[in-house]
Amino acid sequence: MSQKFIKSQNKNSFSQAYGKYFAQAVYDNHFIGTEELSDFIQRQASVKKSDIKAVLQELGEAFKHFFEMGQKIKLDGIGIFKVGFSSIGVTRLEDCGAQTITTRRVLFQPETTRVVVGQQKLDNGTVKQKYVNAITMLKDVVFEETHDNAMNVESDDSGNGSTNPSNGTNSGSGSNTGGNSGTSGTGGDNTGGNSGGGDNPGGGSGDDGYN
Q1: What digits encode the pLDDT tens for the residues 6-25?
Q2: Entry pTM
Q3: CA distance 11 to 168
Q4: Which residue has better confidence, 133 or 199?
Q5: Interatomic CA distance for residues 91 and 35, integer angstroms
Q6: C-alpha dihedral over 96, 98, 100, 101, to 10 degrees?
Q7: What is the DSSP track for 81-122?
Q8: Parallel, antiparallel, or unpaired for β 143-145 and 3-9?
Q9: Any bridge partners for residue 145, and if so which?
Q10: For residue 116, what are the contacts with CB-CB under 8 A and spacing of at least 6?
């Protein structure tokens, strides 16, 4: 199986990427729900499906409980979840408080894995590895073009690495969990920035470096 994409042309005449083609993710109308997740996990582990379903159904309540306590939640192999929010900007320090907080959101920072992609021989004769920080859950995803008209393009308002052929920008394959500092989260009179985030763990072609 693979993640499907279509080829889309940038038709925004004000964009520097006007006329260029981009790969854009598409999805069918089916969601993998608790039932199918339970079936899959049961095949992978020696746990009864009914027990798995019970755990998954309680997971949301567990998240809610720890979010209310102001805690971050880390799931091994998945990543970190935490609360974020937008705030209305005010002129006076004493006017800034809980009452100025508006939109609430769950921020997700996916777990990353360092993947070696090559080597470099230095002038002194030593060899160092070149690597990228890949999102653990995505590093083995294969991409495939589709011509199935039943597949749908979905807008990505979270800033989590989608390519937008309308404006020609590509935010990469990483996940920006912190939102945009100093920008409105809800529009209108909200002049504050997004709080509680700022973590960008890098993507599949993320932060090149040497070890």
Answers
A1: 999 999 999 999 999 999 99
A2: 0.69
A3: 9
A4: 133
A5: 51
A6: 130
A7: EEEEEEE---SSGGG-SGGGEEEEEEEEEE-EEEEEEEEEE-
A8: parallel
A9: 5
A10: 129, 130, 131
Instruction: Retrieve residue 93's tokens.
Output: 């320090």
Distance CA(110)–CA(177), nearest Å, equals 9
Contacts of 144 (CB under 8 A, 6+ apart): 2, 3, 4, 5
User: How many CA atoms, within 13 angstroms, populate the side-chain half-sphere of residue 31?
Assistant: 3
Sheet holding 143-145, edge to edge: 143-145, 3-9, 21-27, 152-153
The pLDDT assigned to 195 comes to 55
Choose between 28 and 194: higher pLDDT.
28
Amino acid at 184: S
Among 164, 198, 166, 165, which Cα is nearest to 179's?
Answer: 198
Nearest to 118 by CA among 24, 31, 205, 26: 205
Separation between Cα atoms, residue 104 and residue 83, nearest integer Å: 7
pLDDT band at 160 (very low <50, low <70, confident <90, very high): very low
